[in-house]
Specification:
This protein has 539 residues and is of the alpha/beta class. The chain is built from 19 helices and 23 strands.
Length: 539
């Protein structure tokens, strides 16, 4: 079993997760089985209770774990199957240690960071190695070297590497080499200092991945090599990508990263075959067609809040040889401005998941616009609930129809709390979470897109469609095209008389990959392309 530990230095947001995922891609394409995991030093048990400003998107796994968005990269870039074992936070570690202490497992000893906390961390690495049966386990440590809360994790991986031996574990450090305009040069000092910080605690990186906007010239590489005690060929340039994040594996391959890793870990494999990956990039960089998709959200200004949604849209584009330009529309702006103006040029409207009342009326107006103007609509989770509220109000004439999440005393609660949720007061991990089966109704557009009878999709919600309204909705032209196997929960809706109006109570964006675009996103982009072509022909 081989281990790669990925740490980050200088600043956050360097794309450590993408780098770890890309190393995974390369190793997988050399025929190795990889497992990826992320350690997050914060004290929350999981990111499920954090808001998008703090954390960006919460990525949900099949088993219902609410995890860091880097796990989304891991799943999109590799075939590795992730579970709650693949994301460990300090909160979980301390919870385990304190549970043991209360049970008396420590037999009267003083409980300490070293060895008790570090042992739990090391156990998790071993556990994943055993359970995954992988050839290589890649562990990314969140945060930046120098953070106080990251220290136990760094200490744990130092000990672990020592225990398994130098040909079985390596450290990859992702760092920043900024270009200072006034001086007209790349600066290596931040990297030197961050490596010095690592060496202080006993970790000497084997490979330095230098994030930079300019090419890393020979001089800079030599200087970094000398001052950081890393061989010249292990100083790797990782430039900002030009078009898409899916270029990162190819960039690292050109720099020889996978070759180097295999040499250090004594892994004998053929070179990575990246042909299918190159084809994906060709379709992303120079697609035959182009469409614009309006995404109407509450956290639209944040890069990371809808990460998987944006990725899944680009995958839908790949499937149609179509570039997808995302038009980000602030939901609240639709409350003050005419949707016909803000959504004029888009060929499709997507309302993603969300919580809380802000922007709800704007989203409802977006759904109304899509339904009335026959613009393709894809609603995800809250986006389905929004579509139902809009339909109730404007098609069925149920004035004041709403979700009880936003208006507990609405006269027409078309969206209401799941029965099992009524007495739940604790917040963490208590929603309807993870993969659940959904039975598709034959003869619907949804079933046609999936080409299947039963699908498994990932959920994260508390509220659902209120069955008392099913009859009225159906009579007015809404079809319930996906239901839970017992028929009790509405999982997917579609409008019969519309080119593409589909919304689901789950999050299909978590199951889309560049080489396996999700059927709903594929169909949505295809419908948008139809609209784009017909507008083009009319013009
Ligand atoms: N707030 C809604 C619910 O809890 C939708 C959740 C979501 O979009 N993820 O049901």
């Amino acid at each position: 079993m081989k281990y790669i530990f990925v740490t980050g230095g200088v600043i956050s947001s360097l794309g450590k997760g993408l780098t770890a995922a890309s190393i995974g891609t390369l190793l997988e394409n050399r025929g190795l089985k990889v497992a990826l995991q992320k350690f997050d030093p914060y004290l929350n048990v999981d990111p499920g209770t954090m808001n998008p400003y703090q954390h960006g998107e919460v990525y949900v796994l099949d088993d219902g774990a609410e995890t860091d968005l880097d796990l989304g990269h891991y799943e999109r870039f590799t075939n590795c199957k992730l579970t709650r074992l693949n994301n460990l936070t300090s909160g979980q570690v301390y919870q385990m240690v304190l549970d043991k202490e209360r049970r008396g497992d420590y037999l009267g000893k003083t409980v300490q960071v070293i060895p008790h906390v570090t042992d739990e961390i090391k156990n998790r690495i071993r556990l994943l190695a055993e359970r995954s049966g992988a050839d290589v386990v890649i562990t990314e440590i969140g945060g930046t070297t120098g953070d106080i809360e990251g220290l136990p994790f760094l200490e744990a991986i130092r000990e672990f590497a020592l225990e398994v031996g130098s040909t079985n574990a390596i450290f990859v450090h992702v760092t920043l080499v900024p270009f200072i305009k006034a001086a007209g040069e790349l600066k290596t000092k931040p990297t030197q200092q961050s490596v010095a910080k690592l060496r202080e605690i006993g970790i000497t990186p084997h490979i330095l991945i230098c994030r930079t906007e300019r090419p890393l010239d020979r001089d800079a590489r030599q200087k970094i090599s000398l001052f950081c005690n890393v061989p010249f060929e292990a100083v790797i340039e990782e430039r900002d990508v030009e078009h898409t994040i899916y270029e990162v594996p190819l960039m690292l391959q050109r720099e020889g990263v996978d070759e180097l890793i295999c040499r250090l870990l004594r892994l004998e494999t053929p070179p990575a075959n990246m042909r299918h990956w190159e084809e994906i990039i060709r379709k992303l960089v120079s697609p035959r067609h182009r469409v614009k998709i309006g995404v109407v959200g509450k956290y639209i200004g944040l890069q990371d809040a809808y990460k998987s949604v944006y990725e899944a849209l680009s995958h839908g584009g790949i499937a149609n040889d179509c570039g997808v330009e995302i038009v980000k529309v602030e939901a609240e702006a639709l409350e003050k401005n005419d949707p016909a103006v803000l959504l004029k040029d888009v060929h499709g409207i997507l309302v993603p998941g969300g919580f809380g009342e802000r922007g709800i009326e704007g989203k409802i107006r977006a759904a109304q616009f899509a339904r009335e103007r026959r613009v393709p609509y894809l609603g995800l989770c809250l986006g389905m609930q929004i579509a139902c509220i809009e339909f109730a109000r404007n098609v069925l004439g149920l004035e004041g129809a709403h979700s009880t999440e936003f208006k507990p005393d609405t006269p027409h609660p078309v969206i209401a709390l799941l029965d099992e949720q009524r007495n739940v007061t604790r917040k963490g991990g208590t929603m309807r979470l993870g993969a659940q089966p959904c039975q598709l109704v034959m003869g619907t557009k949804t079933a046609e897109l999936y080409g299947a009878f039963v699908v498994n999709e990932r959920h994260r919600h508390r509220y659902e469609f209120n069955n008392e309204y099913r009859g009225a909705f159906e009579r007015a032209g809404m079809r319930f095209s996906g239901l839970s196997p017992d028929g009790k929960l509405v999982e997917i809706i579609e409008l019969a008389d519309h080119p593409f109006f589909i919304a689901c109570q789950f999050h299909p964006e978590f199951l889309s990959k560049p080489h396996q675009p999700h059927p709903l996103f594929k169909g949505f982009v295809a419908a948008a392309l139809e609209l784009q072509k017909s507008r083009h022909n009319q013009a």
